[in-house]
Specification:
Order of helices and strands: EHHHEHEHEHEHEEEHEE
Structural class: alpha/beta
Largest sheet: 7 strands, mixed
Distance between the termini: 39 Å
Radius of gyration: 17 Å
Strand order of the largest sheet: 4-3-2-5-6-10-9
């Protein structure tokens, strides 16, 4: 189903099963397609990844003291982007199969990947606090009823001074929910909630912004039409700082 302008919940178990099947399609020749899709277009995946990192990386202030929490890390795409000698990196994902791939791909001693549901994330951190949180393409899979709780949980893991980077596919117009929608491109049923920019900012206002963060920057990620080839959605990013 395609639901425009309506609020509907998606099934987490179906989403988890979807990513389990995506993990089975992992191809070392086009590794990032597992979570960026475009299985048959390696050049597009490569260019989107390159451009995203080029735009977002300067905002993150990554250096020796960086303690990074990568929420929905997948196979460790953003871990690959971090070349500096940092203090700590934790990558979490609710799909254990993706985490297994991440652990095989990255052997740096202070980089850790493990499977964890978002409603347990604060409990699983063993007291660690982070000064950089990456939330790349995860809110689209969270229902409204849990969203504020997840964002507050993430905030509780942040140090006094921290940066949160949110990069999301959002609705270009009104909210669009795909519920058990068969995708010809992915050859599978797909579930996702594409919120409007205003909806996301509203969620931030009652969570991150209420806890001292401010939006330092927000805009569409890609200006190039060939990198943003969806009519109803586009990639958008928010840099929040405290």
């Amino acid at each position: 189903m395609r639901l425009k302008g309506e609020k509907a919940e998606i099934c987490y178990e179906e989403t988890k099963e979807f990513f389990k099947k995506r993990a089975c399609k992992y191809n070392p020749e086009n590794p990032y397609s597992v979570t960026m899709y475009q299985d048959e277009h390696k050049e597009l995946v490569t260019e989107r990844n390159r451009k995203e990192i080029e735009i977002l990386y300067p905002w993150l202030g990554i250096g020796k003291s960086s303690r990074i929490l990568d929420v929905a890390c997948g196979i460790g795409r953003w871990a690959d982007a971090v070349q500096e000698d940092i203090d700590l990196y934790y990558g979490i994902d609710f799909c254990s199969e993706l985490v297994d791939i991440a652990n095989k791909r990255n052997k740096r001693p202070n980089f850790h990947f493990f499977s964890c549901d978002l409603d347990h994330v604060a409990r699983e951190m063993n007291g660690h606090k982070f000064n950089l949180v990456l939330m790349i393409g995860i809110i689209v899979y969270i229902n409204d009823v849990e969203l504020n709780g997840v964002l507050n949980s993430i905030e509780s893991l942040c140090e006094e001074h921290a940066t949160i980077c949110v990069r999301e596919p959002i609705a270009s117009d009104q909210r669009l929910t795909l519920k058990r929608y068969y995708s010809e491109e992915l050859k599978d049923d797909y579930n996702a909630i594409y919120r409007s920019k205003e909806e996301l900012i509203g969620a931030f206002e009652t969570t991150f912004l209420a806890k001292g963060f401010h939006i330092a920057e927000e805009r569409a990620l890609f200006e190039e039409a060939d990198l943003n080839n969806r009519k109803e959605t586009h990639q958008h990013y928010f840099i929040l700082k405290r």
